[in-house]
Amino acid sequence: MSHATNPTLNKTLPYDTLRDFVHITLVAHEPTVLVTHPSNPAKTLAEFLAWARENVAKGKVSYATDPGSAVFLAGELFKQATNLKAIEFIPYKGSGPAAADVVAGHVPYMWSVISIATPFVKQGRMKALAIAAEKRASQMPDVPTMGESGIKDFAVSGWYVLVAPAKTPKDIVERLNAEMRKALKNEKVLERLATAG
Length: 197
Hints:
By secondary structure, the chain is α/β, with parallel strands linked by helices. The protein contains seven helices and six strands; from the N terminus they run αβαβαβαβαββαα. It has helices spanning 2-9, 45-56, 70-82, 95-103, 114-122, 170-183, 187-196; strands at residues 21-36, 62-65, 88-91, 109-113, 127-132, 157-165. Strands 1, 2, 3, 4, 5 and 6 form a six-stranded mixed beta sheet that branches. The two termini are 15 Å apart. The model has no long low-confidence stretch (mean pLDDT 92).
């Protein structure tokens, strides 16, 4: 996803996203989920919003994220949708280090792609409050969607696209597209992608 968002967030990229690449196919989407440290008193999104509103003025509400990612965009959209614009983001070099600090209790919450959050949630080291998708995720069937939790039209996912250099011959691009589409119909591939989120 950062391949698509980089041009809107960085004015001086060493490449042109549209000119320098040819897009082969979309491979997968991965939903984002709002997770907190288990010590957070909220058990629902409504309770989390009440907690955030009470604590944001005290400077106790911030979230961990890697700027430009799907989870960063989810976090910023969340701030707009809830009118909690005073929440600060703490930049990390990736979702792994951000998750580590939420698990350690250094940062109260984060938006995470489901593949990063699921193991921590299953171990009880994170608490999942809502998923930013149109339907619940099979990895977290008890976690309601944002819509079910009262915030409509809120779906943010990380997504994975296969690209190649712009001057890649058309026949090679078409072959790669055909092979990837074939792979994406393979039950084992679909099962592996589903397991990953």
